[in-house]
Amino acid sequence: MSLPVEVDVVIVGGGVMGASAAFHLAEAGVSVILFEKNELASGSTSKAAGGVRANFSDAFNVALGARSLDLFAKFNDRPGYEIDLHRAGYLFALTKQEDVDLFEKSTEIHRSFSVESHMLTPDEAKKISPLLETSDVLACSFTPNDGHCTPEAVVLGYARGAKQLGATILTGVEVTNIVVVDGEITSVETTAGNVKTHTVINCAGAWSPQIAAMVGLDLPVTPYKRELVITEALDESFADLPAQMPMTIDYSSSLYWHREGKGLLMGFSDKSTPVGFDLMRDPDFLEKLGEIAIHRAPRLMDVGIGKGWAGLYEVTPDHNAILGEFTKVSRFFYATGFSGHGFLQGPAIGEILRDLYLDKQPFVEIKQLSADRFQGSGQLRPEYNIV
């Protein structure tokens, strides 16, 4: 496909953020071209566990999660694509009193945004997530309307919807330079040619610092490898598991699992993994997983392992997104650094980026998510409910 001579907006990155932004902008009548250097959803999005939730400690993330859940629920109609959404809930098992205190406060925040949220006893949690070993669990946080869906389907749905609305989506094309003249973007150079524009939106995820550097912006986004596996089909010994079993997370160890087809998807965040883009699978990952599972969910040890993969978290110093517009170059927007909860916030972020471009007030205040917060005496905004 040949490049258009000029567009209103160039989007860099074909994951959930880029695809969502392309759809929402095209729906608003904005001319858009999206460049993805590989394939759509080939970066962090396709490697995500697929969890969608509003269970966070930061009010901003609760608002984003709640709005995105509404959009996921209506995805079959808008943009019109099957994403295999299962709203079985999110269950966090808590073994430390300080964590119980944190989630009790978070529960009140959830409810202030009309998100159904409960603190459960260990026995109550065991009934809805039978694999959970609760002997040392003090309490659990449960948000029943959270769940999981298929990340690749979300991206393909948004991309198809954007193209139907006139957007250009190009894969296998790398952005090599953003031309800035007198503080204003004039064009974008790519491996497929150049296109005139005055607006760029950086949705390149773990690779966003390289794009930002083209306009002189430093984004403190660090790549960390995360790994997960999908088990073989469960046999009759697991017949007691409910069809709608919640995504269950041991908050202390980050071990998590949820139903995936006829088996289970499970993983944990290995904090010993070095920084970098290396996606080679850890030969010791299953042993490490087993050391946690034998204590928190021992029946997981009886399930055969099928396939698995590794992907990247794009992590910021406070585990919160970097979202906004660069003040020194007109008009360079960024949406990155989601620290493991980007996929689930993609729908709402697409709306926000549309509104920022149109100079409209988004449904939430985003000023505190600016990259400026990492400069000098800026105020960090930590998110504690991470996996």
Automatic annotation (TrEMBL):
<dbReference type="Pfam" id="PF01266">
    <property type="entry name" value="DAO"/>
</dbReference>
<dbReference type="GO" id="GO:0016491">
    <property type="term" value="F:oxidoreductase activity"/>
</dbReference>
<feature type="domain" description="FAD dependent oxidoreductase">
    <location>
        <begin position="8"/>
        <end position="356"/>
    </location>
</feature>
<dbReference type="GO" id="GO:0005737">
    <property type="term" value="C:cytoplasm"/>
</dbReference>
<dbReference type="InterPro" id="IPR036188">
    <property type="entry name" value="FAD/NAD-bd_sf"/>
</dbReference>
<keyword id="KW-0560">Oxidoreductase</keyword>
<protein>
    <submittedName>
        <fullName>Unannotated protein</fullName>
    </submittedName>
</protein>
<dbReference type="InterPro" id="IPR006076">
    <property type="entry name" value="FAD-dep_OxRdtase"/>
</dbReference>
